[in-house]
Every structure is written in C-alpha cells, then in structure tokens.
Amino acid sequence: MKAVIVFHSVCGNDYLVAKAFFQGLETRGINTGLFRVQDASWVQKSDLSVKAKEVLHVMRALPQATADILLDADLVIMGSPTYFGNVSAQMKAFMDSTGSLWFHGKIVGKKFAAFTSAGNAEGGGDLCLQALHTYAKYMGMLSIPVPVKAVLGENAPALGVIHYSDGKYAEELDAKTQCVVDGFCDFLVKAMA
Question: Fewest Cβ atoms nearer than 10 Å: which of 25, 47, 83, 90?
C-alpha cells in the first residue's frame, strides 16, 4: 500500500500536520511520500523564533508535488491553509494541474483524506475541507471521513483534521491535533486494506 501527502504551508502549520500523517502512516507500515506544492511567492519573515525557522527550513527542502505522484498512490491526503474559507491559491493551482488525470480517469477509486489549518474556529476550516473533498469527488476519489471516535473525548469534523494555529508560525504540533491525526491514521490503514 502506498500513500501520498500533498500540502501547502506558509507558516509551517500544515507542514506539521502533514509530517504527523507521514510519521503515523509510516509507523503503521504504509509506504508514504511527502510533497509540498509550488509556492513562488513564499517569503520567510525575519522575526521568527529559531524553532519556527527550523520547521520552515525542513519544509522548504521537501520535494515539490507534481500531478504524476498521485498515479501510484492508493491513498491521497491533501492539506492546505484556510484562506477565506477555501484552499490557498497555490493548492488550487496544484489541483488545477491534475486536469489531465481527471480527463483520462487516472485516479478514479483512490482513497482521499484532507486536513487544514485555520487561525481559529471561525476561520472557515470546515469550508476548506469541503473544497478539498469536492475536488476529490470530481476526480473520482473516495472520501474517507474522520470517524467520530477517532480520539475518545475529542471532536473532529468528519471531512478531515483542522489544526487551529491562532495565527502563529508553527514550532510544534499541539497534542490535540496529534491525537486526532494518530486516531485517523489507524482508521485510514483499515480503509486501505
């Protein structure tokens, strides 16, 4: 089984969620690739903490996603920051670059999951997840929801994982998001079987 994680991240928050999925699937025996979308407009702020700069440095060294990486995957996980209740322009550009895959039905039947980061609970993260799943449906992929009991005592939206960043640059993933990702990874492995 093979999974591919494609994400866009400006502040490192979506990268940390992508990394948690990567580690969670790899430790469960799933061959997983981690790719970032192209972002020619990305600029690192100079007043960041050393830890945040390290996170962004590692993130920027990852390979860039191309449409072809989706072809060999059994599971596609996509993540984007939430901008005005939608995916970022860079993620949308990647999605648009897969048009020939749609036209030829090349990724029909693949499993799909999603995640996002948002500044706060009112930031439209659920709408961003919905946009990612709408893309997956048009491509013919099968959406895998977060199970209601992914983490006992925690709530997560069915459409994916939302990490609330409070508008900050990432230094580390919070324990709640990490728990939801871990629980979701268990479910994704079962869904891939």
Answer: 47
